[in-house]
Specification:
CATH superfamily of the largest domain: Carbon-nitrogen hydrolase
Shape: globular
Number of domains: 2
CATH class of the largest domain: Alpha Beta
Number of strands: 14
Radius of gyration: 20 Å
Distance between the termini: 37 Å
Protein name: Carbon-nitrogen hydrolase family protein
GO molecular function, one term: hydrolase activity
Keywords: Hydrolase
Order of helices and strands: EHEHHEEEEEHEEEHEEEEHHHH
Structural class: alpha/beta
Number of helices: 9
CATH topology of the largest domain: Nitrilase/N-carbamoyl-D-aminoacid amidohydrolase
CATH architecture of the largest domain: 4-Layer Sandwich
Family: Belongs to the carbon-nitrogen hydrolase superfamily. Nitrilase family.
InterPro entries: C-N_Hydrolase, C-N_Hydrolase_sf, Nitrilases_CHs
């Protein structure tokens, strides 16, 4: 897929905002209320693209899990996590969509998403995209949860690795460690991005100890900062790096397994990088909203030198193959479909008929 619109859709500039504040931890309703309030606040400051961090609704799993976990505390915690995960679509998404429409802004927000298929209760680490008209543009499920995250989240199928055309330009995004997956980034670059959304649970260092993840207050060691600046340089896009923020005061005293929480690195650290890989806004800590004005000229002059999806890509020498397994994507539309129509859906979603038939067989009673 190639971009069909002008850079920033013909706009001279776009003002963006990263909301860096604590969720109401594992309280979906109150967190959505807080998100809606911050959407309105950012819009009052003329932001047209408003971004929240990883799993903002309703909190990143900062706790530790293992076979040694106290069973009573673990059960209570996992029940809260289950009950405060979000369905897409649902009344929860409608509230966020209404806030986006009222603010006349595009919203990208991280959430813990429950699979909506009947009888399936897998939870995903998801980015939800909402257009300024209050309609869902789409979602992206993290394709590979990192390290101990695999005990919490399922794997996305990759069919949602797309960028979205909007009236301020094309918008794509990746979640935390996905920004180190070179081929995923290349796939989004090929589609065209004016804005790349990169979300993280905080700004951390992985080498200094004593804990595996420790706070990086300068951005000097945080690989997320390095990878997002590299993506800005390679893609010629503006990169909004949205980092999580939460403090001890945001966690109730009776929170199950509180003794295992590691939130010291969730101090924020959000930043905005320009297409040359230089910072428009340097890593910023604290409870705040980070703003930046992104001029189209910055993309235009860089594309004149290196256009990574154009004259500098050399597809005659190297090319990227994309192999999604879009079972989740097509399951909803084929649930009530006769087998004679399967070829039409295979063509529509650009997948093989064999994959579609496999999904039908899995869903058969």
């Amino acid at each position: 897929m190639k971009p069909t619109q002008k850079i920033l859709n013909g706009r001279e500039s776009v003002k963006v905002a990263i909301v860096q504040t604590a969720p109401v931890f594992l309280d979906k309703d109150r967190t959505i209320n807080k998100a809606c309030e911050n959407i309105a606040l950012a819009a009052k400051n003329n932001a047209e693209l408003i971004v929240f961090g990883e799993a903002f609704v309703a909190g990143y799993p900062y706790w530790g899990e293992g076979w040694e976990s106290p069973v009573d505390s673990w059960m209570e915690l996992r029940t809260r996590f289950f009950d405060n995960s979000m369905l897409i679509p649902s009344e929860d998404t409608e509230r966020l969509c209404e806030a986006a429409a009222k603010a006349n802004a595009i919203v990208v927000i991280g959430c813990n998403e429950m699979d909506s298929r009947p009888g399936v209760y897998t939870i995903y680490n998801t980015l939800l995209y909402i257009n300024r008209d209050g309609k869902v543009l789409g979602r992206h499920r993290k394709v590979m949860p990192t390290f101990v995250e695999r005990a919490v989240w399922g794997w996305g199928d990759g069919s949602d690795l797309i960028s979205f055309q909007t009236d301020i330009g094309r918008i794509g995004g990746l979640i935390c460690g996905e920004n180190l997956m070179t081929l995923l980034r290349a796939h989004l670059i090929q589609q065209g991005e004016d804005f790349h959304i990169a979300v993280f649970p905080g700004a951390f260092a992985l080498h200094c100890g004593p804990k595996l993840e420790e706070a990086d207050l300068t951005g000097e060691f945080f690989w997320g900062n390095a990878s997002t600046r590299a993506h800005a340089l390679e893609s010629g896009s503006f990169v909004l790096s949205a980092c999580g923020y939460i403090t001890e005061d945001d966690i109730s005293e009776d929170f199950p397994m509180k003794q295992t929480l590691n939130i010291d690195y969730a101090h924020g650290g959000s930043s905005v990088s320009a297409p040359l890989g230089i910072p428009l806004v340097k890593p910023t800590s604290g409870d705040t909203i980070v703003y930046a004005v992104c001029p189209a000229q910055m993309i235009k002059v860089w594309k004149a030198i290196i256009d990574a999806s154009g004259h500098y890509s050399r597809p005659d020498i190297v090319s990227l193959s994309f192999h999604p397994k879009p079972y989740q994507k097509i399951a909803e539309v084929i649930e009530k479909t006769q087998r004679g129509e399967l070829e039409r859906y295979a063509d529509r979603y650009e997948v093989s008929l064999k994959d579609v038939e496999a999904v039908v067989d899995q869903m058969a009673p």
